[in-house]
Amino acid sequence: MDELAGHGAIRAVFEDLGGYGALASQQGAAGDGPLVGHLQRTNIQLAAIGVFARKGLEQATVNDLLDAAQVSRRTFYKYFANKMEVLEGIYQTSVMLLLARFREMQQVAGSPQEWLRAMVGRFFDYHLAVGPIIRLMQEEALRAQSPLAAHRQRAHQEMLRLLVERLEPELAPRDPLVYQALIWALEAASLDLLGRSASRQEIEQAKTVLGDLLIASLCPRA
After folding, report:
1. CA neighbours within 13 Å on the CB side: how many for 202?
2. Domain coverage including residue 59
3. 20 to 30 Å CA-CA from 56: which of 113, 141, 156, 178?
4. 198 vs 147: CA distance, rounded Å
């Protein structure tokens, strides 16, 4: 991916997830406030995404992140202790905004089936735009020793809670393990597609198949 085009895609995904307004709303006005601290921290994270996607976690350096974000070393260390904390912040931010977007989609989806289909579609759409960083973060989060591992578990719990909140008022309750298994299925499909640099056609097929799976598993037959 061309570096400028890649940075544009990252910005587009961030804005589609709600941008700075959604981030400030989710994080509150603690610390330096959304127009200062949150803005600077997020700009560093956004700039770092391209670096991590291009060079990988091991090869990327703090100097690379400074150059990409065009900030001083002092500013960088005000918000992050090291490059792993930057990746951790990217993972937390992306999960938080994606879950917020899924929750917003409940308001426009006419039925549980439509919401599930739209949610799966949105999840896989981002693979086309920023696949390399998604793959890096998912693989890192699967390592038990990684700081991202605990965030992955919390993300799964939040996703499970969101499914229960949306579906169980209208549909029969399910064993929590059913929801968890479906979340694992989405995650495994994602890793497979990203691991082999799947084509747009394959990703579109995954959207259809995984959407069908969630609907068949969670929604009663008409």
Report:
1. 12
2. 2-79
3. 156
4. 28
